[in-house]
Amino acid sequence: QNTNDDIDWTRNSGGTPSSNTGPTSASEGSFYVYVESSSPNYPSKRTILTSPCFALPSAAATLTFQYHMWGAAMGSLNLELSTDNGSTWASVWSRSGDQGNAWASASVSLASYAGSTITLRFNGLTGSNYTGDMSVDDIGIAAGSTGSGCSGGISSFPYSEGFESGMGLWTQGSGDDFDWTRNSGGTPSSNTGPSSAASGSFYMYTESSTPNYSNKVAILNSPCFDLSSLSSATFTFQYHLYGAAAMGGMVLEASSNNGAAWNAVWSANGNQGNSWQSGSANLDSYAGSTLLLRFVGTTGTTWQGDMAIDDVALSSGGSTGGCNTVNISITFDNYPEETSWEIKSGNTVVASGGTYGSQADGSTLLLTECLADGCYDFVIADVYGDGICCSYGNGSYLVTNSSNVTLASGASFTNSETTNFCVSGGARVEAAPVAKGLNIFPNPVVQTLNFTYQSDVDAPALLRIADMTGRIVHTQSLVLNQGMNEGGIQVENLAAGSYMLSISSEKAMLTKRFIIAK
């Protein structure tokens, strides 16, 4: 324990005293350490847990641990390192906000500190109320680099699995609360789950009836994918999240070190409507390596929370089969719980989201949908009837296609606003030629990410960095000049993993994916 912080860490067995936050058990064994965020331990109270000294070998070493950060008012947790006996500290890993009700793996390379004597500390900061318990467990340091990739599995592409003859090479996860179920027809519960498969007869789903709620986790693991011969890759699937507003959510995670650490590459939360929808994850950053994927479903506080997947596929290159990327950026006003959106083909909802009661006021959410060729309506709605600007905050929205042409944008409306747009074969909505190109380097990056941006006009713009769950981790304002613009962003304080950098102006948004390596 540290004497210069506000509160101590607690060694605990079983669940924490507060509801809707904290783990129900240790990651392994019986005990773990956690931060109790109940009053008077919020808001913004500092808590530090310091390690003993470690004399690292001259060869590379890796630190691994399990962490749990679940709660609506979750604060932040940083892992910091000192080489001068605590006089100065550098962040080597960090997380902030709700990370879901499951233990997660972290892996930090200590190769740059080989031969040094180091001290580590977990530096936590509580959020705005009691739902912010954070925990760590199973801390270890081992010689060698981060775990090697998986072996065997799938090396011929395109690959697809529709679960028609069984689960194929997909397997149930271990260490979760319950299993996924292979099913045909509807699920047993009313007003939740699909009535049939997306195609064929069978699909996989999570049954959220008792005892599988509240906040229970089910994990479905992919086979190993050998992407060593690919320069780009895309994973596509059909998903169905229909139920009560508090039904929970699903995350697709990727690991390039055989499950030692996982990064989220796609997520969806809450009721998405009673229809199958298309999901897509760009795996270009994993090309040339071996890869594991897993679907992590976390139930909400109701039995009406069945989640399903079908028709999973991995192919080389970008999205195929008439699937067009549509990027959605929503900056909320002071009432995110009032905002929702839909993409409709005629009277059929093909994608939707919201409301967003778990999002912070004024925060920005980045989403990606994959649509077939055709024309659609983008509908954004506000249940209070005052739009997302400008009575109670300055919200806005922007929808772009894969060429970064603006398909829909706005801020001020009443109950709802509808914009028609077309992708691929249809007539596209035209936009002012603001952006010509965005380039970033180096990639992967350790400290400074450089970018160049070609603009046709002088224009203000906003730069954002989002993690793979859509959470914004960095923003800054830009003033673009006509011609080539250059800049750099310090990213060394962000955790290792995949991120999206976007630069958006009034008329366009360009996005690039990059990797932070530690």
What does it look like?
The protein has 518 residues and is mostly beta strands. It folds into four domains: 10-143, Jelly Rolls, CATH 2.60.120.200; 159-319, Sandwich (Jelly Rolls), CATH 2.60.120.200; 323-423, Sandwich (Lipoxygenase-1); 435-516, Immunoglobulin-like, CATH 2.60.40.10. Helix content is 0%, strand content 50%. The protein has no helices and 38 strands. A hairpin with a 7-residue loop joins strand 17 (248-255) and strand 18 (263-269). The two termini are 27 Å apart. The model is unreliable at 425-436 (pLDDT under 50).
In short:
Helices cover 0% and strands 50% of the residues.
Strand content: over 45%
Rg over CA atoms: 23 Å
The CATH topology annotation of the largest domain reads as: Jelly Rolls
Annotation, overall tally of beta strands: 38
Number of helices: 0
Shape: globular
Sheet having the most strands: 6 strands, antiparallel
CATH uppermost class of the largest domain: Mainly Beta
